[in-house]
Design goal:
about 200 residues; mainly alpha; three-stranded antiparallel sheet; 3 strands; about 50% helix; binds manganese (II) ion
């Protein structure tokens, strides 16, 4: 079953950009709740299969998508950040960003605007589109809405209020500005290279 992954850094390691209090709650409470929810949904689906009673299926399908989405998104989000992050990507990822978004500054602006304009809870996502063989940015609602399948996530930014409110209150822009200082481009580049090389066989 699903388990909460350990972080590669301490809860205090991303300060001052993200406070230790936010990190601890976000990882040990919020992310844990999605892990638990995904496991519960899988258990109930197994139960439905064994009893043959699929009456609750629409709710279970929604629960699985929401909680597993939350588990997946957070698992990547932690790895997308590093106390030694920030700056700009280099190499193949930098070239691909240039091809798909004009240049890094324009990419950064679009990604930021996508994050800032989410209505309610959601994520800004840079993904490799395995069908079009290109990079795209998506506004992901809740943990699972508004994103087609076959988009391989490379970089995610959590724009739920639990991600920033204790520290930044309603000033989302300051959170996003601070977050760019944490982006682990080594991790994002490694994801891009794998997705780019292996995804064509998936569609
Ligand atoms: Mn979150």
């Amino acid at each position: 079953m699903y388990t909460l992954p350990d972080l590669a850094y301490d809860y205090s390691a991303l300060a001052p950009h993200i406070s230790p209090e936010i990190m601890e709650l976000h990882h040990s409470k919020h992310h844990q709740a999605y892990v638990t929810g995904a496991n519960t949904a899988q258990e109930k689906l197994a139960e439905a299969r064994s009893t043959g009673n699929f009456a609750a299926l629409p709710k279970l399908e929604k629960d699985l998508a929401f909680h597993l989405g939350g588990h997946l998104n957070h698992s990547l989000f932690w790895k997308n950040m590093s106390p030694d992050g920030g700056g700009e990507p280099t190499g193949e990822l930098a070239e691909a960003i240039g091809e798909n978004f004009i240049d890094f500054a324009t990419f950064k602006k679009q990604f930021t605007e996508v994050a800032m304009s989410i209505q309610g809870s959601g994520w800004s996502v840079l993904a490799w589109d395995a069908l079009g063989s290109r990079l795209s940015i998506y506004q992901l609602y809740d943990h699972q809405g508004n994103l087609p399948v076959a988009q391989i996530p490379l970089l995610l930014l959590d724009m739920w209020e639990h991600a920033f409110y204790l520290q930044y209150r309603n000033v989302k822009a300051d959170f996003v500005t601070a977050w760019w200082n944490l982006v682990n481009w080594t991790d994002v580049s490694a994801r891009y290279e794998k997705a780019h090389k292996h995804s064509s066989a998936m569609i």
